[in-house]
Design goal:
Elements: H1 2-5, H2 7-23, H3 25-32, H4 38-60, H5 69-93, H6 96-102, H7 106-118, H8 124-141, H9 148-175, H10 181-205, H11 218-246, H12 248-252, H13 258-268, H14 275-293
């Protein structure tokens, strides 16, 4: 009853759950990248997500009427497709926890998106929070396994992913009025598939890697299912529901819990604990809290 009556409570609960589900995708992607190319794993992620969401959408709501498909596909291609590619490339250059820590700047990226779209003024508190988040990112990356150019490239790619994903999520809610969260999520994921599929086909046509030999093995399909169904289909639906209640900036605050979820998941599978990454994540969280309290 409380969740139904309070948009703030339900929105924050949905956003937190979205991040918990999303966190499981990072370790699964880490294993897949050992044999899969970024274009192949991105395409597989979108295909499996749609195989889940389309039947659910048709069964529960039918074909979405009045959907502005041009805008929906554009938001999906840029926000989800572009964001996915950048994040996959960032993880290939670094490691799952470092990418999750860098992704903690998403609330600030989302606030910038809202400022650009709605012209909300930037307060001194926001600028101080932005500075703290940058410092936290530098501290966190000191615990990364990546070095030199790979780390710098990974940071740039992850920050770029946060920006385009925030824009796509914001426009999904604002630019597709009258549509359910399920219809919005399904349509934009279809847009992401268009970009990923085109990239995969282009790479293959140029003689690049296609599907790996074990692509249809139980192990790879299971990992891809975790990365796609949890790390995209369910988490994106929950995130869109959260944005509809509390806005993209506040919903994105919950991204800051992701490094800890990822680290705990990695620990369960034999990974190690990094105090530098934990400290960096804490500083980033403090910066985002400062920015949002102002």
């Amino acid at each position: 009853m409380l969740l139904a009556r309070s948009p703030a409570v339900s929105g924050n609960a949905l956003a937190a759950l979205s991040m918990v589900v999303w966190a499981f995708g990072f370790p699964a992607l880490e294993v897949l990248l050992q044999t899969w190319s970024p274009a192949a794993v991105a395409t597989g992620r979108f295909v499996l997500s749609l195989l889940l969401l389309v039947p659910v959408l048709l069964a529960m709501e039918g074909w979405p009427r009045g959907m502005p498909w041009g805008r929906a596909l554009l938001y999906g291609a840029v926000g989800l497709g572009g964001g996915t590619f950048l994040m996959i490339l960032a993880q290939a250059a670094t490691d799952p926890v470092t990418v999750a820590v860098i992704a903690s700047v998403t609330p600030l990226a989302a606030t910038l998106v809202e400022w650009g779209e709605d012209r909300r003024p930037l307060s001194r508190g926001f600028l101080l929070g932005l500075g703290a988040s940058v410092v936290g990112g530098v501290v966190a990356t000191a615990g990364s396994r990546a070095e030199g150019g790979s780390l710098a490239v990974g940071v740039a790619l992850a920050v770029g992913s946060c920006l385009v994903y925030s824009w796509g999520s914001h426009r999904t809610v604002r630019g597709l009025p009258g549509q359910s969260a399920l219809a919005q999520s399904t349509a934009t994921i279809a847009g992401g598939l268009l970009l990923a599929g085109a990239a995969f086909a282009g790479v293959a046509a140029l003689g690049g890697p296609g599907l790996p030999p074990g692509a249809f093995s139980g192990r790879d399909l299971g990992l891809l299912a975790v990365y796609a169904l949890g790390g995209m289909a369910l988490s994106q639906l929950l995130f869109v529901l959260a944005i509809r209640r509390i806005g993209v900036a506040l919903a994105s605050f919950h991204v800051n819990g992701t490094p800890f979820y990822v680290m705990l998941i990695m620990l369960a599978f034999g990974g190690g604990w990094s105090w530098m990454q934990a400290l960096g994540a804490a500083v980033v969280v403090g910066g985002v809290v400062l920015a949002q309290r102002a």
